[in-house]
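BUG: 3D viewer hangs when loading the predicted structure for this chain

Environment: internal workstation, default settings.
Expected: structure renders.
Actual: progress bar stalls at 90%.

Input used:
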Amino acid sequence: MSNALSSKPILVFDIETVADTEAARRIYPQLAELNDADALSALTALRLQEAGHDFMRLPLQRIVCISALYIKDGKFSLFSLTADKFSEKDILSKFFRAFSDLEKLPQLISWNGSGFDIPVLIYRAMQYDLSAPWLFEEGERIKNLRFDNYVNRFHSRHLDLMDRFSQYGASRREAMDIVASLYGLPGKTDVDGSMVGELVSNGDWQTLSIYCESDVMNTWLIYLRWLRLTGQLSSPDFEAWQQQSRDYLAQYTQADGSPRHHEFIADWSSAPAPH
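Structure tokens produced before the viewer hung:
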């Protein structure tokens, strides 16, 4: 495998959330005596009245899954942290471990991470007395992070592809599934974000985590095209990384040995190679 990518680790991530009715009861006293189902219905109605849509305020987004692809020395590791196995505090704590070693801080890649994922991580982590100093360091203690950190919008240590593609909001921010489909990638399949609450209620954690991992893989494959566009990856290296990604997913199995991402691979059509 080519060493054309950065020598530092790469971490591509995505989160899935549901409405936090427990926290909502602290904000909206009228929900205090309602059960979870009624509180969710009332909260949705309140949000529609406030904003004209039912997308919850970011502090009320409870994290139920973080999926990530970690790449180091050309080796892939795709994993999910889900709320059926870990508390929200533990999910956050385990994710933050990726930023615990100052000498091995990863290149962070996301789609709309600046607008959604990172703010949600902040709101939720501060409920649990958690600390991730290097993720939020801006140079006060480590001078070389002053001009290359995860926090500053125009630095590259965290590359939010949605932000970059839209020129930081100068043009319309597009949904990832639209962009992925343009490039012959699977994009969204039979599951979308509106179904996360139902999947959690039904205990269908496998479908949820596969969906979140698929978003991560789409983001990674779009990132490869970004590297090619910006001259950071040669055409042969681009093809090699795509093939390694495909091979890795083909070998990725469930606990029972069955293929985990066969639908993603089947939907991954060939796209025009960059010239």
